[in-house]
Amino acid sequence: MKINKSVAAALALSALSISSAWSTDKSKTNAGDDVAQHAQRQAAEPSTTPAAGQVSATRVASQAAIFGSPAPAGTATRTVAVIPGMNFVNVASGDSVTFRSEGQEATWKFAESIRGATVDLGVLLPDMPNARGVRVYIERSHLFTGG
After folding, report:
1. Taking the model in full, what pTM does it have?
2. Chain segment 125-140, per-residue pLDDT in tens
3. CB burial of residue 84 (10 Å; 0-12, 13-18, 19+)
């Protein structure tokens, strides 16, 4: 009799797991389709994963967006010359800064930062000469600190 109870319990548990798997299959995704349809559609779509060793331009752009965005040159509060051997530059949260190097110029509007932040200028301005390796230290925002 004890074996029959164990078998009955195992069958009940397996029936519960099957029903939850079936119901998940019928659940709707954010796209409005069933989970199974969604998985089939994703499998049919071509992969956008970059080859090994390559960095996706989209990934770099999304990393840069955390720190602010490009801005029109006329909005800059100051200009910084990026020269060979430069190690860092300090900026204030919310400032727009024009960076110049070897005849090129780009303006960046820094996002307000709660704790302060640091980023490689080459991530923000990948086409700017001498930018790679220059650390940008973004000070804490006065909007969030009340200062």
Report:
1. 0.59
2. 999 999 999 999 999 8
3. exposed
